[in-house]
């Protein structure tokens, strides 16, 4: 029986993480439940996704944790989607949300400085699942309240958007509910009794609120804990309400593993597509067009004929499936470059070897080294050939592994170098195109 067949036997699904240390290592799990309280461990993963959110969109499951975004049809293989850092130094607890007008949003919290919780704010960016694209423009989510807030979660109920989040700039960490007629706010606070319930369980801190609306009833999941408590000893709790104000039954969720911050997804009403062909990391998504609105209400305005450089962002936990994807992305970019009507562009004559190896072995290592040598030779030439401004820009090659070993840090640095230089070259071309 396939994993997706197992999932269809449950009404709820989620991807919590089991923390062994902070911030790493953590281990992700796929869990299912029929009552939202008792959860069965369906699959363990050796990657460390914290605070994973789930959504079911266009026949696929989407996952996001920070800027790490994927989609899958089977929870066996995941295809990554490029996500901008939105100009933030920290971007946490991201979620997908579809507003009352059918628009999809990427909701998150973040700060432009180091981890100073008082500086954290809530943001939203447009999300285009049909194009596998997240807009780089961030919009403030405005609260009529002071302090730093993290972990946003939004629901639309009876004409209003209800926003749960965690307040971090208090002696304790607290859950707060806000209400607005606009998804971006301003939001006014709704008084609830949720923190008194948390305190009654013996916990004084609380974070990661996630609310589900099922059959007219409200269920709030969160992580109650005490400051200084080991992460591996914490678990998720659930409260219930009929009116969003008075909450009862702060009960601990049971699972085969310790669970932390995740977005439970109610799938009891989903009619799954019959086509369960798995999405595979060996077939990358079609590169999205670089069309994006400058504000939520403006129409799309194309800016260039060249596609976004949708390269891997260097997450060491996703090396195996996405390393080859980058070869294909580069080849697709070369093809689009050569097919462009821009007379400024000279044809590119190189290609990368994108042969599919099932596991990291000597052949896969040699493939990476050979591809890397091609790019190390060609990219500096392209930088020189297409420099029209920014004469201080330097193209400094990264260090490559020297032994028969995938040094993940060096591989990460290499792909970051490729992406940054291609993006710079594309920016130069845009100025004369």
How is this structure best summarized?
The protein is an alpha+beta fold. The protein has five helices and 22 strands. It has helices at 3-7, 194-200, 319-339, 362-385, 408-432, and strands spanning 12-14, 17-19, 26-33, 39-45, 53-57, 60-65, 68-72, 79-81, 90-98, 104-111, 121-128, 133-134, 139-140, 149-157, 160-167, 174-180, 188-190, 205-214, 217-225, 237-241, 247-252, 265-266.
Main sheet properties: 5 strands, antiparallel
Specify Rg, calculated over alpha carbons. Answer: 23 Å
Q: What proportion strand?
A: 25-35%
**How many independent structural domains?**
2
Q: How many separate helices?
A: 5
Shape: globular
Classified in CATH, the superfamily of the largest domain is: Glycosyl hydrolase domain, family 43
The CATH architecture of the largest domain comes to 5 Propeller
What is the total tally of β strands?
A: 22
What's the CATH topology name of the largest domain? Tachylectin-2, Chain A
Kindly provide the name of the CATH class of the largest domain: Mainly Beta
Distance between the termini: 53 Å
The average pLDDT value, as a whole number, equals: 81
The arrangement of helices and strands along the chain is HEEEEEEEEEEEEEEEEEHEEEEEHHH
* Structural class determined from secondary elements: alpha+beta
Region (Disordered): 272-304
Biased composition (Low complexity): 277-293
Biased composition (Basic and acidic residues): 294-303
InterPro entries: Glyco_hydro_beta-prop_sf (IPR023296)
């Amino acid at each position: 029986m396939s994993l997706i067949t197992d999932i269809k036997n449950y009404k709820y699904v989620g991807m919590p993480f089991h923390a062994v240390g902070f911030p790493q290592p953590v281990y992700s799990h796929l869990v299912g439940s029929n009552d939202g309280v008792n959860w069965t461990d369906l699959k363990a993963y050796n990657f460390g996704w914290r605070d994973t959110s789930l959504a079911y969109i266009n026949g696929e499951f989407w996952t996001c944790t920070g800027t790490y975004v994927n989609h899958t049809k089977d929870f066996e293989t995941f295809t990554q989607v490029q996500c901008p850092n939105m100009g933030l130094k920290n971007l946490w607890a991201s979620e997908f949300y579809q507003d009352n007008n059918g628009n999809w949003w990427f909701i998150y919290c973040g700060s432009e400085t180091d981890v100073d919780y008082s500086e954290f704010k809530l943001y939203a960016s447009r999300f285009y699942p049909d194009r596998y694209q997240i807009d780089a423009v961030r919009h403030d989510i405005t609260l009529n309240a002071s302090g730093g807030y993290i972990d946003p979660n939004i629901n639309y109920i009876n004409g209003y958007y209800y926003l749960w989040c965690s307040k971090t700039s208090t002696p304790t960490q607290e859950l707060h509910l806000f209400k607005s007629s606009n998804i971006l706010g301003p939001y006014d606070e709704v008084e609830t009794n949720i923190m008194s319930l948390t305190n009654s369980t013996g916990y004084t801190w609380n974070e990661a609120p996630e609310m589900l609306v099922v059959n007219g009833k409200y269920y709030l999941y969160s992580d109650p804990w005490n400051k200084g408590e080991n992460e591996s000893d914490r678990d998720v709790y659930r409260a219930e309400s009929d009116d969003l104000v008075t909450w009862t039954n702060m009960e601990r969720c049971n699972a085969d593993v310790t669970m932390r911050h995740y977005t439970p997804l109610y799938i009891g009403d989903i009619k799954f597509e019959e086509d369960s062909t798995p999405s595979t990391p060996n077939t990358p998504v079609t590169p999205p067009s670089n069309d994006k609105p400058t504000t939520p209400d403006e129409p799309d305005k194309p800016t260039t004929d060249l596609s976004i450089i949708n390269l891997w962002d260097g997450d060491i936990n996703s090396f195996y499936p996405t390393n080859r994807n980058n070869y294909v992305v580069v080849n697709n970019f070369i093809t689009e470059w050569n097919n462009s009507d821009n007379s400024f562009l000279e044809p590119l004559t190189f290609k990368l070897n994108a042969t599919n190896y099932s596991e990291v072995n000597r052949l896969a290592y040699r493939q990476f080294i050979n591809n890397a040598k091609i790019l190390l030779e060609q990219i500096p030439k392209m930088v020189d050939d297409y420099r029209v401004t920014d004469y201080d820009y330097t193209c400094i090659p990264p260090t490559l592994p020297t032994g028969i070993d995938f040094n993940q840090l060096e591989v990460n640095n290499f792909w970051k170098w490729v992406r940054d230089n291609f993006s710079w070259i594309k920016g130069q071309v845009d100025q004369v195109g």
